Amino acid sequence: MGIVQGSGLGPTLYIVMTSDLKPLSVINILFKFANDTTFLVPENTDIDISVEFEHFCFWAKVNHMIMNLLKTKEIVFCRPSARSFLPSCLTGIERVVSAKLLGVTFCSNLKFDEHVKYRRHVIQKH
After folding, report:
1. Which sequence spans correspond to the domains of the chain?
2. By percentage, how much of the chain surpasses pLDDT 70?
3. What is the pLDDT of residues 93-116, one digit of tens each?
4. Which residues neighbour 20 within 8 Å (Cβ) at sequence distance 6 or greater?
């Protein structure tokens, strides 16, 4: 908070400020880049995604950081042939079928059609 977005110092300060942010489980994976944090929780884990998310929210509060819950999304990855529906585990967080991370569009069905379609569109514009 208080760092101008887009500044050269911002990403470095974010990494320093979040250096003590760790997942509760060694099975769950946390990625930090620039001013974004992404965490992956496998289906079979010792710490549920909702517990892990509450841990991150508590960490943010204690460290006087603001989580932008409007930009927070949940995506569930599954095989394209899987037809099971999982209820959302994160109350108030939008579940999406695709999400862009570091310029790559990931789809819940593990296909890259949406990413390829977007890249073709960008290339055709130039």
Report:
1. 10-125
2. 83
3. 989 988 888 888 888 888 878 777
4. 59
